[in-house]
Amino acid sequence: MAPKKKAQKSTPKPSTPSNSTAGRLPNWPPFQPLIPQSDLSLQDVLPGQIVTIRNLWTATLCKNYVSFLSSLPLITTPGKPKKGDAVRVNDRFQIDDPAFAARLWSETALKNLVLRSVHDGDLGSDAKRKELWGGEVVGLNPNIRIYRYSKGQFFDQHYDVSNNVDFAGSPPISTKTTWTLLLYLTSPATGCIGGETVFYPEPELRKKKGKDPPPEPFVAELEVGLALLHRHGADCMLHEGREVLEGEKWVIRSDLCVRK
Ligand SMILES: O=C(O)CCC(=O)C(=O)O
Ligand SMILES: [Fe+2]
């Protein structure tokens, strides 16, 4: 029998460090199939607050991921939230996986769409882009959260806070999160009823004693493969994940990180 050493020597190095901690990190399936980036675009659905990308992931990829994610050790929320935390009733898997975050950023259309979000060629587009994203976007938060909501589960109204995140490397980069990323893997098309993410825009400052009715809530309907980004931190809108009425809602959550 050939010594093991020899076989290993000829094995090409993986292009990402994800194998270095094999066994601990999930063996995430490849992002296939995907729609060509040129067919995707970023929609400004609530300017400055919410943008979406439809079909960032295909229905097939979402379906495959739901079966893969079902094999992970999801943990049901402990009944009582910590003081100041929102009531979240769902099953969650959370992991720090810089390689997966980097793949989700670069191997999908996300990076290109976010970095080109303000048309190149526009005067001052760099500054506009920085204004929109809250700085120079470096990538996605390696802290990846997977949510599964079954019938009766929900995420009560809350604000998402900004966190400091260090990107390893030489030199390392200090960043902070500015926008939440939610990637929906299920929808009514897969039997998930309810579970919409609902945002409550703040009423305008009523300097002129306005009697306008409060702004309508913005309801983000679940859509398979849709990526939703919303501003968080100081300018976060109050929002919630409505109760799931039928089926299962699956979401992958991360955040945009900008250089500090
Ligand atoms: O699951 C949702 O629709 C919302 C999730 C959310 O608000 C969060 O992760 O902070
Ligand atoms: Fe949230």
TrEMBL record:
Q: Where is the composition biased (Low complexity)?
A: 9-22
This protein's UniProt keywords = Dioxygenase, Iron, Metal-binding, Oxidoreductase
Q: Which GO terms describe its molecular function?
A: iron ion binding; L-ascorbic acid binding; procollagen-proline 4-dioxygenase activity
What's the cofactor?
L-ascorbate
InterPro entries (alphabetical):
Oxoglu/Fe-dep_dioxygenase_dom, P4HA-like, Pro_4_hyd_alph, Pro_4_hyd_alph_FE2OG_OXY
Q: Where is this region: Disordered?
A: 1-29
Q: Which GO terms describe its cellular component?
A: endoplasmic reticulum
Q: Which domain of life is it from?
A: Eukaryota
Record-linked SMART domains: P4Hc
Name all Fe2OG dioxygenase domain ranges: 139-260
- Annotated protein name in UniProt: Putative L-ascorbic acid binding protein
